[in-house]
Amino acid sequence: MPTTRQIVLNSRPDGWVTPDNFRIAEAEVPPLDEGDVLVRHLYMSVDPYMRGLMNDGGVAYASGFQIDAPLFGRVIGVVDSSRNPDFSEGDCVYGMLDWAEWSVARGGESLRKVDPDLAPLSHYLGTLGFPGLTAYVGMMLIGKPKDGETVYVSAASGAVGQVAGQLARIAGARVIGSAGSDEKVRFFTNECGFHDGFNYRTVPSIPEALRLFCSDGIDVNFENVGGANLDAVLAHANPFARFAMCGMISQYNLKEPYHLRNVNEIVSKRLHVQGFVVRDHSHLIESFIEETAEHIRSGRMSVAEDIVNGFENAPDAFIGMLKGENLGKRVVKIADL
Fold it and tell me: What's this model's pTM, rounded to 2 decimal places?
């Protein structure tokens, strides 16, 4: 069995994540038992939800990372050897695996096969993976955009935001996005077909930007940011607007959380505000992949990826993603197929 490099949790963050919170270690890959699969990793995902798992106790829906143990997340790999009849050498697979170059999927339970001929393998960590499914669940099952409505998507150039906005546009809504650079705004307007958008770093204020770009109010809010952004949307929402509460990336590294001032708008405007976690909808992934792959093939949907090369660069890639440095889904490439 090969040896593998792993990225382990060296310490828990106190506020912002730093490189010192990670450590690269070397480990022996254990032998396979009956039902196990040895996977050589090709691509590894870095996602905002992982920040919560770095805290002691993790989050309500998932246990956290352990000190001196490998972090884990979504990985695309290739089967090197298998003692499981459902997987053969050379199969391309997706699973929740260690941050490592090699890992053993015990019982193969975390793995599913992916088709390398349908799309680039890295797409299965973004638009054709759980970030894309997250966008679908939040926008189509909770937001339910209608023809002519106004939809607002924060963090609109990210892995989830770009898909959420395009799904709303395909449904006939007018889609407005926000992001942290002019380049990102050009991407989601020119490439993804959003109707308009703004750089939240350069506008006088988010409330003023929403009054300008969403002059008829907001019917659907896909919330990725939280904090002051959410406060502004609550004030500008139309009665009976739907809020798909996907993430709060502006809050993950704060020692003192932002306190919302406009929460009474939920009552007075009779807003539907629903949080969701994509793992509750994982049974939809295969049908979602089929439908979304067709959107991409037909040109109705664009895909942007931000690929960082090198296993050892995963901590910096993760930190940069939390700071908004990426345009599109950030993925770490570990090896070639």
Answer: 0.90
